[in-house]
Amino acid sequence: MNKTVLVIGARSDIGIAVARAYAAKGYDVQLAARNAASLSADRQDLVTRHHVGVTLHEVDALDLASHKAFVDDLPVLPDVAVCAVGYMGEQARNETSLEEMSRVMRSNFEGPASLFSVLANRMVARRSGTLVGISSVAGERGRAANYVYGSAKAGFTAFLSGLRNRLAKDKTGVHVVTVLPGFVYTQMTQGMDLPAKLTAQPAELGTAIVKAVEKGKDVIYVRPVWQGIMLAIRNIPEFQFKKMSI
Amino acid sequence: MKLSGWGRHPVAECEVVRPRDPEALRQALAVTSADLIARGNGRAYGDSALNPARTIDMRGFDRILGFDSTTGQVIAEAGVLLADLIEVFLPRGWFPAVTPGTKFVSIGGAIASDVHGKNHHAHGSFGQFVDWIDVLGPDGVERRASRDENAELFAWTVGGMGLTGVILRAGVRLTRVETGWIRQTMLPAPDLATAMDLFERGQDATYSVGWIDCLATGRAMGRSLVMLGEHATLDELGEKERQDRWVQQPKRKKAVPLDFPSFALNSVSVRAFNTLYYANGRRQAGSALIDYDSYFYPLDAILEWNRIYGRKGFAQFQCVIPLAASMAGLTALLGAIARSGQGSFLAVLKRMGAQESRFSFPMEGYTLALDFPMRQDTPALFAELEAIAIDHGGRFYLAKDSLLTPERLRRSDGRTAAFTRMREASGADARFRSLQSERLRL
After folding, report:
1. Is domain B181-409 annotated with CATH 2.60.40?
2. CA B296/CA B293 separation, integer angstroms
């Protein structure tokens, strides 16, 4: 029997890239998103290319009350669950609209954390599984340019780290991988002027995630150069950092 | 963002959007009243897929939607590349029925340019193997078009350079192959007459193409290496090839790491290269097994080879001369090219078969294609070459063009007036425009 991957936030460029990378490895795929029916073209694509089973599932990351039922309704508890849910909003609006700020925080932190809590407990009961959280380097240090998004991702990164600690300590057989992608060419970054050497294609991310899960990695930066960059950024003294625009 | 075609000339600042589904595309269409053009993988050489106001990057439409293994018909979105189809379907015994010299073209681009390949003389252009297309029209309505349904839209869209609407998806037939290998026969031809004779005698071959030395003069004018090819059967493979029947083993890709300075390509270096290449080809004359990648896509192995022409980019001249005038036309063209002292490594000669179509490039005769680095005097040289082609009844390949004028286009191609009338009647002229369509007043 094929192994199964669940991709939450499957409409995103990163979500689709992960689904493709796993289908290429022979995994059956569960694509979950809002308005899941509109992913039928992606389902056909995975089936045609890789002859794997693909199912579509409705999920709303912000609707916490629905998350248990969402997991219950999956045809099979997946071997790997990847959460690519994310919402950046616009920083200027996030500063003035509390509603928008809350939406960014809930989309990037509360929603994914809730989904992973449910999935983690089910996987612990089964005593196997891997959870992959797509967080962001923006969560490594709050910057004026995107601190609402960044703080939500910081929360998610800390959540993943704590969850990993809990599951490893208790020898549950369940592993957590944190992905800090750096720049990726996606709809979210469309129109931004991104430096090519620092910017990954979604497909690169998909392959990197499959590999990280296989190797049981804890935290990955997709392009290694980001590790150095973030190390440097984290170590700038605050009295200097607060005056910088990066 | 700054955008250009494969020739890196012209470069234009374009507003680019990249929708991933028809709904997002319709929104992009509705948001602006400005005109727009769809862009595939950017392999047209000139300005066919540039629109400063709005260029729609179709690469988000990259899903393969289905495959019928009895007919070989694949249903694919417009942004799927031939490379994707080969990756998925060659191991299942299928290959694109027509392929141009790069596998990095999108299906949408291949249809819009009605591209041709080394089997044009035998099988026709890409459009012959397109069963249907879905086109988003100027009214925002999606229509299925085929030879039976919306037949006019189908006929104009194949070869219509994206100027009838946005191609969303297509049903395209692949051809059965037993292996991923090609049995190539290399035939050296010391002059043009011999080369053409080899093509005429090679009409039964599935594939035929010639590399022609555009700088050779006198008795050696038109000296060529003519390469015929057939899909190899399993029986024809040797021990080594059999172990890699579908050519799955990755080869190392080379990349051009930087823009060559403009003096790197000059008539001395090109002449030296051409002489060596011809001599080498003569030594390798005869039959050999070549993997499909090296046979069809030798340049794809050198990523970003367009950078050897330097930062100013290059222009490709490609015309087709009708059969009866081919000898005279090619002789005149080769003379003018040799006199100019310009011209490139990459000159290709090919016999084309007969084709009836509304606005596609191919017709029965000989096509000549070669690159020129973009310089101040390049437009004048193109004008001279275009005049020779027109005098011999020839016409030009819009997928390669960046320098043609509206007058010369109309003198070369009597179908142009009907094309623009169709655009006016359908309302496409107000919605779908490229820098090329503006330049050529299409």
Report:
1. no
2. 6
Tokens coding A224: 């290694």
Domain boundaries, chain A: 4-241
- CB within 8 Å of A205: residues ≥ 6 apart: A14, A17, A18, A179, A181, A184, A222
Mapped onto helix, strand or coil, the DSSP state of residue B210 is: strand
What number is the average pLDDT over the span B349-359?
97
- Three-state SS for B3? strand
Give buried/exposed letters for B327-348 (b at 16+ CB in 10 A, else e): bebbbbbbeebbebebbbbbbb
Residues B405 and B396: their CA atoms lie apart, in Å, by: 11
Q: Are B314 and B343 in contact (CB under 8 A)?
A: no
Search chain B and give the residue with CA nearest A42: B63
Asked if the Cβ–Cβ distance from A38 to B20 is below 8 Å, we say: no
pLDDT at residue A183 tops 80: yes
Q: Where are the domains of chain B?
A: 59-178, 181-409
Q: How many CB atoms lie within 10 A of CB B11?
A: 15
pLDDT at position B332 over 90: yes
Instruction: Choose the closest CB to A41 out of B17, B63, B88.
Output: B63
Report yes or no: B17 at the A interface, CB cutoff 8 Å: yes
- Interfacial residues of A (vs B; Cβ cutoff 8 Å): 11, 13, 38, 41-42, 44-45, 48-49, 187, 190, 193
Q: Could B63 and A187 be called an inter-chain contact, meaning their C-beta atoms sit closer than 8 Å? A: no
CA distance A163 to A114: 12
Please identify which of the residues A27, A149, A185, A221 carries the catalytic annotation: A149
pTM of the model: 0.93
Q: Is B311 on the interface with A (CB under 8 A)?
A: no
Q: Determine whether the interchain pair A48/B23 forms a contact, defined as Cβ–Cβ distance below 8 Å.
A: no
Span A94-115, pLDDT tens digits: 999 999 999 999 999 999 999 9
CB distance B50 to B434 below 8 Å? yes
Query: What's the CATH code, domain B59-178?
Result: 3.30.465.10
Contacts of B188 (CB under 8 A, 6+ apart): B223, B224, B225, B226, B278, B281, B282, B285
- Which residues of A are less than 8 Å from B17 in CB distance? 190
Location of structure tokens 């590349």: B81
- Identify whether A22 is a catalytic site residue: no
In one-letter notation, the amino acid at residue A196 is A
Average pLDDT value for residue range A40-69: 98
CB pair distance less than 8 Å for B88 and A44: no
ipTM over 0.85: yes
CATH 3.40.190.10 fits A4-241, yes or no: no
Segment B221-271, tens digit of pLDDT: 999 999 999 999 999 999 999 999 999 987 766 676 667 665 566 667 777
pLDDT tens-digit readout, B129-170: 999 999 999 999 999 999 999 999 999 999 999 999 999 999
Which pLDDT band holds residue A195 (cuts at 50, 70, 90)? confident
